[in-house]
């Protein structure tokens, strides 16, 4: 679906991307993960030609990126960035309509699509359609950013730290909602982040970068449990397999037994549930109608460690 072969980017003598190759399959959410300055954003922007390659080749849906007109290439891909990139003088509806307008959709179809996209990202079109970006909270603006990227129904989404600017609670909600959207729509997504938990929660595959190079690529389980060097191991911290618990939802391991105390949301991850158990000094925490046991969590850790 998307293939990079020996891609290099030099910025005036500084080699930001040093000959990287990878392949992203259709419907896959591929995470580029690494510390600040390692070349993640540059790699993403090479794909939609916002940055020109120094050398190497990039293919999108089997075609070389140079064989497209730049506008045609960009229209194929939704692009979401941290600061949302919304046009400040356009209301939410008009922001979402930008690419469909360029694609010359008729007015009725654009309007309908705008409403559908706002509903998909959990915003009421009647309340939000006419608002200007400055009248939105950070989390709402990010949702509009995602709605706008999805509006023309591109096969591909390029997302550069899309939830980086929002507070941790809204971020977790947005991540979970986006995961649900992705489960339904199955877009091919390249997602840039430096947040390990975000990468583990969302990624089908994770590509770890350092100093313009790929250090390791694999499923979340592979990179956590079989780190190829100390950098990857350190990057995931000492918690190792514990970080993997981010990927599992409490609801999937719910037991019928009741437990005392404030219930956790069924959407909490096993990692959050484990932290709560440690904080409360208990081996069972209540969920909505049921509970989760330490033993249940330990079984997941043991299973994943095999
Ligand atoms: N337009 C530019 N001109 C010169 N150097 C640049 C330019 N854009 C990026 N760089 C440099 O290239 C390197 C990689 O930058 P890039 O933005 O791709 O990293 P990143 O991994 O996305 O970092 P962050 O997580 O901080 O956004 C950095 O050292 C950066 O300073």
TrEMBL record:
Which segments constitute the ABC transporter domain? 2-236
Q: Which PROSITE patterns match?
A: ABC_TRANSPORTER_1 (PS00211), ABC_TRANSPORTER_2 (PS50893)
Q: Could you tell me which SMART domains the record lists for this protein?
A: AAA (SM00382)
Question: What are the UniProt keywords, alphabetically?
Answer: ATP-binding, Nucleotide-binding, Transport
Transport found in the keyword field: yes
Can you name one GO molecular function term for this protein? ATP hydrolysis activity
Its EC number is 7.6.2.9
Asked if the Swiss-Prot or TrEMBL record annotates the protein with the keyword ATP-binding, the reply is yes
| Membership in a protein family | Belongs to the ABC transporter superfamily.
Protein name per UniProt: ABC-type quaternary amine transporter
